[in-house]
Structures are given as structure tokens and as C-alpha cells.
């Protein structure tokens, strides 16, 4: 079982005001254990829709999503919640940190939810944040951190539970170019160190080139980086 993710024939359409648009028209995608894949596509091409499906965050899809060999469609709500918690980590464009908690607490929380004891969770959070250059910002709340620092906290939070697969939706999209480059490089280094796989949506070709493989969403299907279907 070398594929942490295997998506087959994924379809998703939206109907609004009597008009139906087919956003995903049969997406096939495999991500191998430890592989970092860039999901490229212009704005509106369906990257977020695909990540939401793979993240088991939304229903309404046809097709198969297997995560670590488990077929999502065969799981009930509890099963999907468990799989999401045990196997997945998320990084969003806007970090979605909890504003009333400081940096270390934001990284501790997802671990405590999984019954990791407080001492272990804090040690893990400190180690991750330290590795991201935030050792001196542990007690700062999100509002006291720069955009790049907040996004690093979000990266640490996503990796806190050692997910087999990290899903990142434009993870540096709200940062200036220089900061985006630095945070992305740190994100990729940490994902590699941790041995996680990642699926990273971006519309930035330059950032995509830093990943192991590039796939492109085009008219609802995926092409690999060479442009072949
Ligand atoms: P991307 O992330 O690549 O910019 P999205 O996945 O956000 O693209 O959107 C793809 C298309 O699906 C867009 O045309 C968008 O308007 C449409 N869409 C996404 N979510 C919804 C929704 N909940 N209801 C209706 N249309 C949606
Ligand atoms: Mg999007």
C-alpha cells in the first residue's frame, strides 16, 4: 500500500439559480506515501473543491476517495471524523488560528483532542514551533504575530498529530512574495522531515516547481505536469 491517497472518478457539480456547473468531471489522482504534490490551476478551476472532498469536509461527490486504504464512502460520520483526525492535517490560506489562544496552545489543542497528554503535546508543539523559528513566540496570540509567523503556527498545527497526508489550500496565498517563499520552504522541509505526504493547491507555478510532482486541474480533470492526461 504505497498510495496514501487514491482518488478515482471524482465528480462534483454545483447548481445555483437553475444553472449547473460541473467543477470536477472525473478526477483521478494518487499521492504516494511521503510524496509532495502540487495541485495547480487558475482561480475557479476547482482546487478548493477537490481539497474539501479529499479532506472529508463536504459531501455531494460521486467517485472514490481512498485514504490509507480506507474508502471514504463506506464510512459513517464518526468514521470520517476519525479518519480526518488520525490521517489528515490542514493548512489554509488564511491560517484559521484560534484568536484567543497563544501559538503553543493552538498547536497543543489538536493533540489534546486526540488524548495526547498535556506534557507530551507541549513538548511536541515547542519542538515544531522551534523548528519553524518561533521559539521566542510561543506565548504570543495570533494578533501579536506577523502574517508569516501566523502561517508558520498553522503549519505546526497541521503537523502536530503526525498526519500521513497534509492538505494545504494556497498555504502562502495571503503572504507577500518573499515571505511566501520562506514559509513554503519551511513547510516543505518540515513535511519532508516528518515523512508526511502533502497535496498543496496553488495557482503559483514557481512555488509548484519546488514540490515533487505537479498536477494540473483543467476543465474538471487532472493532467500531470508534462501536460499529458
Ligand atoms: P479554486 O479553489 O480553484 O479557485 P473552487 O474550488 O473554489 O476553485 O471553485 C470552483 C468552482 O466551483 C467555481 O466556479 C466556484 O464558483 C464553484 N463553487 C465552489 N463552491 C461552490 C458552492 N458551495 N456553491 C456553488 N458553487 C461553488
Ligand atoms: Mg481555492
UniProtKB/TrEMBL annotation:
InterPro entries: AAA+_ATPase, ABC_transporter-like_ATP-bd, ABC_transporter-like_CS, ABC_transpr_LolD-like, MacB-like_ATP-bd, P-loop_NTPase. GO terms for biological process: lipoprotein localization to outer membrane; protein localization to outer membrane. GO terms for cellular component: membrane protein complex; plasma membrane. The keyword Transport applies. Gene3D superfamilies: P-loop containing nucleotide triphosphate hydrolases (3.40.50.300). CDD domains: ABC_MJ0796_LolCDE_FtsE. One of its GO terms (molecular function) is ATP hydrolysis activity. SUPFAM superfamilies: P-loop containing nucleoside triphosphate hydrolases. It comes from the Bacteria. Belongs to the ABC transporter superfamily. Macrolide exporter (TC 3.A.1.122) family. This is ABC transporter. The lineage of its organism: Bacteria, Pseudomonadati, Pseudomonadota, Alphaproteobacteria, Sphingomonadales.
Amino acid at each position: 500500500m504505497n498510495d496514501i491517497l487514491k482518488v478515482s472518478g471524482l465528480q462534483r457539480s454545483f447548481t445555483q439559480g437553475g444553472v449547473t456547473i460541473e467543477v470536477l468531471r472525473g478526477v483521478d489522482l494518487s499521492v504516494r506515501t511521503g510524496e509532495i504534490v502540487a495541485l495547480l490551476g487558475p482561480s475557479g478551476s476547482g482546487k478548493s473543491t477537490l481539497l474539501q472532498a479529499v479532506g472529508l469536509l463536504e459531501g455531494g461527490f460521486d467517485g472514490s476517495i481512498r485514504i490509507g486504504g480506507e474508502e471514504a464512502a463506506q464510512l459513517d460520520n464518526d468514521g470520517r471524523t476519525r479518519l480526518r483526525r488520525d490521517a489528515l492535517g490542514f493548512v489554509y490560506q488564511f491560517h484559521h488560528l484560534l484568536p484567543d489562544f497563544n501559538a503553543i496552545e493552538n498547536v497543543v489543542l489538536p493533540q489534546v483532542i486526540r488524548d495526547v497528554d498535556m506534557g507530551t503535546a507541549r513538548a511536541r508543539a515547542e519542538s515544531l514551533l522551534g523548528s519553524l523559528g518561533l521559539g521566542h513566540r510561543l506565548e504570543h496570540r495570533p494578533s501579536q504575530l506577523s502574517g508569516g509567523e501566523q502561517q508558520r503556527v498553522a503549519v505546526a498545527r497541521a503537523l502536530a498529530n503526525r498526519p500521513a497526508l497534509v492538505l494545504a489550500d494556497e498555504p502562502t496565498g495571503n503572504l507577500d512574495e518573499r515571505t511566501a517563499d520562506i514559509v513554503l520552504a519551511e513547510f516543505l522541509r518540515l513535511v519532508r522531515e516528518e515523512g508526511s505526504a502533502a497535496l498543496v493547491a496553488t495557482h503559483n507555478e514557481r512555488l509548484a516547481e519546488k514540490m515533487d510532482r505537479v498536477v494540473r486541474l483543467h476543465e474538471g480533470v487532472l493532467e500531470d505536469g508534462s501536460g499529458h492526461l
